[in-house]
Amino acid sequence: MIEIKKMVVKVSGKTILDGINLTVKPGEVVAIMGPNGSGKSTLAYALAGHPKYEISNFQFPISNKKKKNNWIIKLDGKRIDDKSPDERAKAGLFLANQYPMSIPGLGIYSFLWQTWKKRSQISDFRSQKDPKVMSLVEFRKYVVELAQSLNLNLELLGRSLNDGFSGGEKKKMEILQMLVFSPKYLVLDEIDSGLDVDALKIIAQSVAKVAKEKNIGVLVITHYNRILKYLPADKVVILEKGKIIKTGGKKLAEEIEEIGYGKI
Ligand SMILES: Nc1ncnc2c1ncn2[C@@H]1O[C@H](COP(=O)(O)OP(=O)(O)OP(=O)(O)O)[C@@H](O)[C@H]1O
Ligand SMILES: [Mg+2]
């Protein structure tokens, strides 16, 4: 389970998130909605451990942060808010970015293979393939199969990571990485924006499928109810000006689509 306790997040001294309490259980889909600038991406970055985002706790001054009970984020019972992004990823957290980075010169297979090998040294690595017995050739086949399940143009796999990719292609690449690494918890930041209707359906359905099969907890940040048709949310949380103002079920997302945030 991801547990977030009274989390305050500051960027350059400015408070962006102000006392967030949230849990995501294994296998649970939690949707985060909220107006532009309400702090949704900040929540995703703070979870992933982006160094620009300074995390503290409502109750405790930052100087007390290291004390044992002053945890702010836990993953499966272990504190991670004092861990590096790399350690959080190893603990099973994966963030699919709203604006994925391009890295010219870094081939996709090479990136995936190196990351895969690093992760396969972790004892609770969860992929269905056994990394110890996979050769590079087999790995490539495995990646191609996953890419095909997303309807990803295979020609893209021969290029550098996200280099010159369209917005939608970048989003598909994020999901391909997620499928390859099979994390325990997945944070999707507006994976639906920029996707055409068919791609949205394929991607949301494939996330829903692996989440169910592998009991992955999903935090899905979105502006639209349509992704939730294919990736049904167990819980919908509304963020406004850095605070959770409402929590509800699927109906809440439908209401927002109809009447907007002003009247809820
Ligand atoms: N590095 C930063 N420096 C200054 N302000 C920042 C920084 N990062 C975020 N903010 C501010 O924090 C607020 C929340 O931003 P955030 O990106 O989390 O919003 P969001 O809910 O994801 O919005 P959107 O729906 O547009 O993606 C905004 O007002 C933004 O300008
Ligand atoms: Mg955002």
From TrEMBL:
Residues 2-264 form the ABC transporter domain. The keyword Metal-binding does not apply. GO terms for molecular function: ATP binding; ATP hydrolysis activity. It comes from Candidatus Shapirobacteria bacterium CG2_30_35_20. InterPro entries: AAA+_ATPase, ABC_transporter-like_ATP-bd, ABC_transporter-like_CS, FeS-cluster_ATPase_SufC, P-loop_NTPase. Keywords: ATP-binding, Nucleotide-binding. This is Fe-S cluster assembly ATPase SufC. It holds the Pfam family ABC_tran. It comes from the Bacteria. Belongs to the ABC transporter superfamily. Ycf16 family. SUPFAM superfamilies: P-loop containing nucleoside triphosphate hydrolases.
